[in-house]
Structure formats: C-alpha cells, structure tokens
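Before the break, one more example. Copy the sequence into your notebook; we will annotate it together after we see the structure.
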Amino acid sequence: MDIASPLLLWYDRHARTLPWRGSRDPYIIWVSEIIFQQTRIEQGTGYFLRFVGRFPDLHSLAAAGEDEVLRLWQGLGYYSRARNMLFTARFIVENHGGIFPSDFEMIRKLKGIGDYTASCIASICFGQVHAAVDGNVYRVLSRVIADKTAIDSTKGQVLFKRLAQELISRQRPGDFNEALMDLGATVCKPRSPECTICPLINLCRACELKIQGELPVKSPAIKKSASVMNYLLVMQGEEIVIQKRTGKGIWNGLYELPMIAGDLEPASIAAECQSVYGIKADNLSEIRRIKHVLTHAKLDIRFYAVTTVSKASIGNKSLLWVSGRNIVEYPFPKPLVDFLDSLSES
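Here is what the structure looks like once it is written out:
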C-alpha cells in the first residue's frame, strides 16, 4: 500500500503553518513535541513562543533555575515534562558539549524522551527513517486498514508502529510524519471526518465500509479516583503564606498554599493545621470550592480563609511569607493560579 505519494502531495499544498514548522533545529523540535504531548495546538502555541523566547537554545535552558522553568510552564500541567526538559538540557550541555545527539537510540535514552519524540527529532531534523506515531496517526492508520485493535493496548501500539514504519517515505520521513499528524488534526478528525477531501479516500477501508465513527478503538476508560484538597489562605496585610510541594505526586516542585488532604469538617482541618503547620486556625470559613479533573484523578479543591495570624506564631520552616505583588514569581498549579488571580482582582 502506498499512502506516502498522495499524502505528501496533499501535505505540500495544505500543510499547517506552525511556528516551529520548517525548523531543523533539534532543540526547537524537541521543545515543540514535549509541549504538545498533552496540549492542544491552540492552547500550547503561546507557551511555545514564550518558552523559546526566554530559552532560545540548550545552553540558556540548561542555565535556568527550576522555579523559572516551572513558572513559564504554569498552566500546561504534567509538570514532570518541564523538569525532565531542564534535566536533559543540562545533561546534553555537560555530556555532549551542548550539541543535541543525532543518533536515534541516544536521543531515545534522554530523560523525558520516548519513541515518539525521538522519532520526530530523528526524522525531521536528521532525515532518519523512523515513524512517529501519536494519537492523530493512530486514528488515520486504524481507519485506513479498518482495524479495531485498541490503540492504547500493547498489541495495538506494536501493530500501528510497525505499519507506520512500513509505510513511511524513505525520501521524506520527516514530512511524512508531519503530514500524517496534520491529516489527523484537520481532516481525519475524531468526529465528523471530512472523507470527501481526504487524500487517502481511495485507500481507506473504514471509509469503504462506512465505519469511520467506530475507529479508533480504545480500552475501557479507567475510573478516576477522587481526592479532596483543603487549602488555607493565611494572610497578614499584603503578605500570604505559601509552601513548595516536595516528594512524589502531582505538582511536585510547584508552590501552593498550606494544604490539608481529606474530606474533613472545618474543625478537623483546623486541628490538622495546628498539628502539621503550627497554625492556629479556630475560625475557618470556606470561601471557594472548585472541581479540577486530571488524567487519573478528580480533585475537589476547597479554599478556607484563616483569621488573623501573626508571623511569630508560625514556626514551620517549610512555609514562606510572600508579598502579594511578588506572588507571580512563583510557579503554582493552574487551580491555585486562578484562585490567586481572583484575589488580586478583588
């Protein structure tokens, strides 16, 4: 089956105009691929431009502090991506003289880079024949061959990776990978695919059988666990108490307000607050409650105001008093960014 010829002909006419499109700089392609792993183009383009504007190359990123990197990443989620990028930039500078590796296996071994991102970098920047398979590509290929193997199963991942590797253009591997992604994003969409303008319409088995809407197939969704997070707004004048999250788990390395976990009554939260932070919080009042959905969790986030607290009464060294005017210098998870922004507005 030859999908490369009609696909590349279509791509030459209809390729999306993207800020990183056309670049052969592995650093630029790496940054774009990491940002858009879990982020829509519309949402992430501004982040990409700000990120490469501040860190235009490996050396500038490697020299950055973690807080600054996370602050630029603030709102994108999946913060381990940003920490891995910082680690990898420093590793390349220290071990490869700041030159991005060109060998596929070496690229794939870098922290935070898997087969997909390594394939993108190797094919786009170095012309190597490695198929990059993302969600868009899974969708296109599963429809072309009308295969109902779950794309998120090990069997499905092996099947479609092998198929993509068989079909990839040997002359234009990078363009082929980008063309498949563009086709999935703009024509072979999850809902209401525009089959009449698809360059692969004459090759597509799903279109022939009229089962486009049934593909691709995914495994049954994992039930999301539910967690309650009680945040304590402790202020004195224009200063606010914050802390840095440490250890494993979501939002590691970001800042937050003092937090007590669990579906607790205010009296129990106050008791925990006294025990954990040394903060006397007898008259807690709930001021906001929001729901925040992550990949595998649903968060019930509650914000409580703590009545007047003196600095001298807080002995916990993990807590910081920060001026409200300087709060923007610290990276916070998106729900806390929104909450703190609403405070400044009011």
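The first helix runs from residue 4 to 14. The two ends are 62 Å apart (CA to CA). Try to locate both features in your own notes.
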